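Hi F.,

I've been meaning to write this up properly since the lab meeting, where we talked about keeping a consistent format for the predictions we share between groups. The idea is simple: the sequence comes first, exactly as it goes in, then the C-alpha cells exactly as they come out, then a line or two of notes. No screenshots and no reformatting. I'm using this chain as the first example so we have something concrete to point to.
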Amino acid sequence: MKKQLIGIVGLLLTFGIAMTGCSSSSGVAESSSSEESNRVSSSQTASQSSEEDDNIPSLNATELTVQFGDGGESFIMHLEDNSTAAAIAGYVGTTEWRLPVYSYDESDVMEYYDVPSRYEIPDNSETVTEAHAGEVFYSDPNRIVLYYHDAQINEDYTLIGTFDATDEFANAVENNPVLEGWGNQIIVISAGE
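Output, unedited:
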C-alpha cells in the first residue's frame, strides 16, 4: 500500500511539474501574444494618426466664395497651392462656414475669424512683415486673418489666399452689418455659389 501511495504521490508530483511547465510556457505564449498585440496596437495607432491626416476632406478647389454678412455680395478668394489652403477648402467643401468677425483694437486694416477647434488645419507659417490688401492668412491655431488694407506687420502666418482688392471688396468688409440678435458681424465661406 505504501508503494501505491508513493507511486500516486510521485505521479501527482510529475503531473504537477508537467502542468507547471505547461503553465509557464502558456504564460510565455500569453506574454508573447500580449507583446505582439501591443505592437499591432501601436502600429494601428500610428496608422490611425496617419488616417486622421488623410481624414481631411479633399476638394480640388482653387477658389472659395466669401460673403460679408448673410445677404452680402459674394467675393472670390483665390487659394494658394499649399496644404493649409487645401485643408480649409476641403472642410468648407463639406459644409459652409459661418464665422464671427473680430478685430484687434478696432483695426482699420484687418479682421480675423476663429475656426472651431474640431478642424485640424496644418500650419506652414513663415514670418510675414508686410500684408497687402486682399491677402488672407492662416494663423495657428485655427484662425483666419484678412487684411483689407496694406499694413506693416511682424507675424507668423501661412498665406492661404487672396481677394481682388477692389473698392467694392473693401467697402463690403468695412460695411458688413451686425447680425441682429447676435451683436456681431459674420462671414460666410463656401465652396461655391
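Notes:
Residues 1-55 form one domain.
The chain has a mean pLDDT of 78.

If this format works for you, I'll send the rest the same way.

G.
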